[in-house]
Amino acid sequence: MEWMCRPDSPVPEAAEQLLASVPEWFGLPEANGDYIEAARSKETWTVKGEDGGVVGLTLVDRHFPHVAELHLMVVDRQHHGQGVGTAMVQAIEQDARQRGVKLLEVKTLGASHPDSGYARTRHFYEQMGFLPLEETDLWGDQNPCLFMIKAL
Ligand SMILES: CC(C)(COP(=O)(O)OP(=O)(O)OC[C@H]1O[C@@H](n2cnc3c(N)ncnc32)[C@H](O)[C@@H]1OP(=O)(O)O)[C@@H](O)C(=O)NCCC(=O)NCCS
C-alpha cells in the first residue's frame, strides 16, 4: 500500500492509542504522559489508514531554522514493517528540504542498552540515512540517549 503522510492538526487521543500499542518501546506512564501532552501542541504529521484512523504519527520540533527534530515517531503495532515510518520520514524530509532545513535529528535508545526492539528502531533510522552522532546520559544512567543525525 502507498502511504501518504501529511501535516495534521494535533491528535493527542491518537497519540495515546499508538503509544499503548507498543508498550515494549513506550512503557513508562510518565514519559507517555509527556508525549501525549506534547501531541496537544507540537507540529504533527500523520499517516491515515483506509478508514481514516491514524496509523502513524510524528511530532516535529524546530530548535533552529536549520534543523528539524523527530520528537516522537510511532506506528501502530498492526502496521509495523509496511512502510508507514518510511513515508513519514520521507514526507518530513521533503518538506524540510523545501524550507532550507539542513539537518534532521532524532534521539533514541543507544546500543549500549541491550533492548532488541530499539536495535530495530536504530536499524530503521540508519536505513533512512541517519548516522549515530553521540550517546549521552540525557535520560539518566539506565537509558543511554543516542543522538542520530541526517544531513540534507
Ligand atoms: C520504528 C518505526 C517508527 C518504523 O516504522 P515502520 O512503519 O515499522 O517501518 P517501515 O516499514 O517504514 O520500515 C521497515 C524497516 O524498519 C525496521 N523496523 C524497525 N522497527 C520495526 C518494527 N517494530 N517492525 C518492523 N520493522 C521495523 C525494519 O527492520 C525494516 O527494515 P528492513 O527492511 O531492513 O527489514 C515503527 O516500527 C515503530 O513505531 N516502532 C516502535 C516505536 C519506535 O521505535 N519509535 C521510535 C522511537 S525513537
UniProtKB/TrEMBL annotation:
Q: Does the keyword Acyltransferase apply?
A: yes
Q: Which InterPro entries match?
A: Acyl_CoA_acyltransferase, Bact_Acetyltransf, GNAT_dom
Q: Which PROSITE patterns does the entry link to?
A: GNAT
Residues forming the N-acetyltransferase domain are 3-152
Q: Name one GO molecular function term.
A: acyltransferase activity, transferring groups other than amino-acyl groups
Tell me the keywords, alphabetical order.
Acyltransferase, Transferase
PANTHER family, A to Z: AMINOALKYLPHOSPHONATE N-ACETYLTRANSFERASE-RELATED, AMINOALKYLPHOSPHONATE N-ACETYLTRANSFERASE-RELATED-RELATED
Annotated protein name in UniProt: GNAT family acetyltransferase
According to its UniProt entry, this protein's organism is: Serinicoccus chungangensis
Its lineage opens with:
Bacteria, Bacillati, Actinomycetota, Actinomycetes, Micrococcales
